[in-house]
Specification:
Helix 1 links the parallel strand 1 and strand 2. The protein has a single domain, classed as Rossmann fold, CATH 3.40.50. It is globular, with a radius of gyration of 16 Å. The chain starts with a strand and ends in a 6-residue tail after the last helix. Strands 1, 2, 3, 4, 5 and 6 form a 6-stranded parallel sheet that branches. It has 188 residues and is α/β, with parallel strands linked by helices. The structure holds flavin mononucleotide. Flavin mononucleotide binds next to helix 1.
Amino acid sequence: MITVIAGTNREGSNTLKVAKTVATMHRELGVEVKLVDLAGLPSALLSPGAYAEKPEGFTEAFQKPVLDADGVVIVTPEYNGGFPGVLKLFIDMLPFPESFEKRPTAYIGLSAGASGALRPVEQLQMIFGYRNAFNFNKRVFMPGIGDLLDESGAIKDDALRGRLREQAKDFQEFVAALRPVREGGAHG
Ligand SMILES: Cc1cc2nc3c(=O)[nH]c(=O)nc-3n(C[C@H](O)[C@H](O)[C@H](O)COP(=O)(O)O)c2cc1C
């Protein structure tokens, strides 16, 4: 199972639109996909007590899709040269170390500006490297996001859709190749 995380909670988010497209691409390759939309995070997650006791709904709808995933795909926008604070809060609220230990993780970035969220993606790769995730290094960047989507939220450019499809296919191969390592096989 692949879990796609839409890395912001902003209303009307472009990240969510792209995450939906990416989820469909993975489904078309024959795997089960879960989409995690951070807009649905319980607001009680901001409560000081949330580190110790998770608010109602968090475990089933947000934690389980990460813990059950064979691979995680993170779609992140660029906010002030970084990834959104709500995505870091989400990461911090997940159990340590099992959430990302040996978990294959892929990245897609989007931004209004010219970088396509290169900075946020590299910040995430650094954090996930620290967490012993298996970083998948074929990333996709989407600069100038304001011009890339049509009114329905679909990606207009064939070449860009092709890059996302290729990432999905290669990531699934990466996930499959690492399965013996994750399951503690000969190289685990
Ligand atoms: C709080 C905030 C900060 C932003 N900072 C940047 C930035 O540093 N660089 C950039 O290129 N775009 C920046 N943008 C524009 C976003 O990359 C663009 O709006 C993109 O659509 C955001 O993804 P979203 O629609 O999923 O929120 C920012 C947008 C927001 C809401």
